[in-house]
Design brief:
Elements (H helix, E strand, L loop, with lengths): L2 E10 L7 E2 L5 E11 L5 E13 L3 E5 L4 E5 L2 E12 L4 E4 L3 H12 L8 E3 L5 H7 L2 E8 L7 E5 L7 H8 L3 E10 L2 E8 L3 E4 L15 H6 L1
Antiparallel strand pairs: 1-8, 1-9, 1-14, 2-3, 3-4, 4-7, 5-6, 7-8, 10-11, 10-12, 12-13, 13-14
């Protein structure tokens, strides 16, 4: 199982002080009275979120009223998640996947001006990321080769490849996967340009001893 969070930064607007309903009953952001502090004393306000995303996929469901199965060509799937907001850094960490994050904030960006929330992604320094990895194993980057939009290279110490080095220097990297030391444990970690941070290993046991309820938040910070 992949443990992943998405990291964004507030660009315009303010986080709501009361429940903010999305149009067409697509979901909401609701502030809670709960806060959380990570081991490095980064403090977060916690928001409960719901988002209903359209799925263009045929399904069949059982209607208990009619006692019959009904076929649908599309449906809505609901996603519950949290936003952990740090006001001093304007940082938001969301415990859901990047696709949901993108769709969710697309709607928030188009709300009325007094409710509008726009976010941005932190510009990553992949040369630095490559240096802190024990070893890089996979790199994905944009390509200008004829008929090719992107390339993926895999292998031990893949970033010593000359084409991969050029992609890093030209800021063409879209994601990198490597081994990172987290709390004394080697973890296979993916860091993407969209702000997604994923751990493909079991989260280090030391993260569960910090006393916080969300060890994945501790991992992301």
């Amino acid at each position: 199982m992949v443990n992943a969070n998405s990291v964004k930064f507030l660009k315009k607007g303010n986080m709501p002080t009361k429940k903010l309903e999305l149009p067409n009953s697509l979901g909401y952001i609701k502030p809670t009275k709960k806060t959380i502090s990570t081991e490095d004393h980064t403090n977060f306000q916690i928001f409960d979120c719901l988002f209903a995303k359209d799925k263009n996929h045929p399904i069949r469901y059982y209607d208990e009223t009619s006692g019959e199965y009904i076929d649908l060509d599309r449906y809505q799937r609901k996603f519950d998640f949290h936003i952990f907001y740090n006001p001093s850094r304007n940082m938001l960490i969301l415990d859901t996947n990047a696709t949901i994050v993108k769709s969710f904030f697309k709607i928030l960006k188009n709300l009325e001006e007094d409710q509008r929330i726009e976010v941005k992604t932190y510009k990553l320094d992949y040369e630095f990321i490559d240096q802190i990895f024990k070893t890089a194993r996979t790199i994905r980057f944009k390509s200008s080769d004829q008929g090719v939009n992107s390339k993926t290279f895999s292998g031990n110490e893949v970033t010593i490849n000359q084409e991969a080095i050029k992609a890093i220097k030209r800021d063409n990297v879209t994601s990198i996967i490597g081994v990172l030391d987290v709390k004394g444990q080697a973890c296979t970690v993916s860091i993407s340009k969209t702000g997604s941070i994923a751990c493909y290993s079991s989260l280090p046991k030391a993260l569960f001893n910090t006393g916080i309820d969300y060890p994945l938040l501790e991992f992301t910070v």
